[in-house]
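DUF4296 domain-containing protein
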Amino acid sequence: MLSSFKATPVSSARAALVMLLTACLLTVVGCGSTKVINSDKTLVVRDSVYNISNVSVFKSTSEAVMDDADNIDLYGADKKRINALLKEHDSLFVRQTLQLDDLDIVYQAKSIDSWRDYSKLAKKFETANKELRKFLADSKKMQLEL
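Predicted structure tokens:
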């Protein structure tokens, strides 16, 4: 004998609530994978922040700033060359810059009196150059502080 099922107001409300919750759950699950990615790369040097997202040319310079308008390029300078310059001048003011497209960022600028002073500057500058090159190549990193 088959009994007839009678829908009561409570069971109809439960069924409607279950279908509504299922529809909401399916809607929310579909939206969960949306991510917003900000690809702006920033470089922090001392207290300044630079946006370097679209840099196409990167190079660095190391030079001795002279009293007259001519600066001396120190790229690849060895101990002999630095000592000769120091013999000619009592001290040298060395400026090292990072050039990113048209932007020149002075990384460090100091007066030196010996090869040892220059050697310390050069090592620190070379390390900064390596870090910056690695940072520019890594698409996941967004900020570098030098």
